[in-house]
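Q: I'm building a small set of examples for a reading group on sequence design. Run inverse folding on the following structure and report the sequence directly after it, with nothing in between.
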C-alpha cells in the first residue's frame, strides 16, 4: 500500500523565498547607487564651496579647496560678489589657453579694482604680458633707493595682493628689475644683488601671510637687462626700477597635443591677438 505524500518536497523549495529576497535587496541597492550618481552635482559643488569658505574664514586650511572639475568653466570671481575671488581650477586639469586668458582677465579686473589708488598714483600697473598677468610695483611706491626692504606703509597693500593671489591656483614668479645705473654699497655689490634681494624679500612677505604655498612661488633677479622703457631718461629709468609679480598660466604639457610646448606657444599666440 502506497503511503500518502508528506510536505517534505515543499520544504525543499523554501530556499527560493530567501533567494528572491536577496535578489530584491540587490536590485534595490543598485537602484540607490544609480540614483546617487545622478544627484545634482551643482548643489554638491555649492555645498563643498560653502564648507571651504567657512574653513578659510576660520583660518583653517588657508589654501582654497578644489572645485569639482565639472565646474572648471565657471567664472574666476563670483557673479554675486565680483570682488571675492574663487578658486581657479588647475591641478591635474589642463585648461585651454583661451580659457586661461579669460580667467586671467578676470583676475586683472579684480586687481585693478583692488589697487585703484596705487594705479592712479602711477606706482602700480596691471597688464597682460607674454608669460601671464603682470602686476608691476614701481620702486618709487614701495622701496627707498638702493634698499631691498619695502616701505612699512606698503605692507598692508602687499598683504592684500598676497591674499587675493592666494585664492587662485596659478603660480607666482616675483621678478626684481633695476635701471642701468651701477650700484656698489656695503649691502649690494651690483644691480644683480639688489634686484634679487627685492624679489626674495617680497616672496618672504607673501609667504608670511600664509595665503600662498611655497611651492607656488619663485623669484628671479634680472638687474637692468629686462627694461620696459629707455634708460636714457629719468622717467624711463624710474619705470625700469620695479618688481614684477607675474601670475603664470598653466603651461603643463597637454598630452593631446603633438607638440610638447603647444600650451605655452598657444598662450603666446592668443596674447598677441
Amino acid at each position: 500500500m502506497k503511503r500518502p505524500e508528506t510536505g517534505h518536497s515543499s520544504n525543499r523549495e523554501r530556499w527560493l523565498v530567501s533567494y528572491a529576497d536577496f535578489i530584491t535587496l540587490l536590485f534595490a541597492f543598485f537602484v540607490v547607487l544609480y540614483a546617487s550618481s545622478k544627484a545634482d552635482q551643482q548643489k554638491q559643488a555649492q555645498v563643498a564651496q560653502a564648507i571651504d569658505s567657512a574653513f578659510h574664514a576660520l583660518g583653517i586650511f588657508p589654501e582654497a579647496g578644489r572645485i569639482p572639475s565639472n565646474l572648471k568653466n565657471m567664472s574666476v570671481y563670483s557673479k554675486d560678489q565680483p570682488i571675492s575671488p574663487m578658486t581657479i581650477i588647475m591641478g591635474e586639469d589642463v585648461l585651454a589657453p583661451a580659457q586661461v586668458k579669460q580667467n586671467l582677465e578676470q583676475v586683472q579686473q579684480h586687481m585693478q579694482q583692488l589697487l585703484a589708488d596705487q594705479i592712479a598714483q602711477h606706482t602700480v600697473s596691471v597688464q597682460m604680458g607674454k608669460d601671464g598677468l603682470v602686476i608691476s610695483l614701481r620702486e618709487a611706491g614701495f622701496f627707498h633707493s638702493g634698499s631691498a626692504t619695502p616701505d612699512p606703509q606698503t605692507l598692508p597693500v602687499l598683504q592684500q595682493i598676497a591674499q587675493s593671489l592666494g585664492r587662485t591656483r596659478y603660480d607666482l614668479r616675483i621678478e626684481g628689475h633695476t635701471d642701468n645705473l651701477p650700484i656698489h654699497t656695503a649691502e649690494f655689490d651690483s644691480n644683480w644683488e639688489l634686484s634679487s634681494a627685492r624679489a626674495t624679500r617680497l616672496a618672504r612677505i607673501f609667504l608670511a601671510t600664509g595665503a600662498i604655498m611655497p611651492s607656488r612661488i619663485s623669484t628671479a633677479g634680472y638687474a637692468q637687462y629686462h627694461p620696459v622703457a629707455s634708460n636714457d631718461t629719468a622717467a624711463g629709468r624710474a619705470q625700469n626700477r620695479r618688481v614684477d609679480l607675474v601670475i603664470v598660466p598653466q603651461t603643463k604639457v597637454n598630452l593631446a597635443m603633438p607638440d610638447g610646448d603647444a600650451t605655452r606657444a598657444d598662450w603666446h599666440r592668443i596674447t598677441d591677438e
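The first strand starts at residue 124 and ends at 128.
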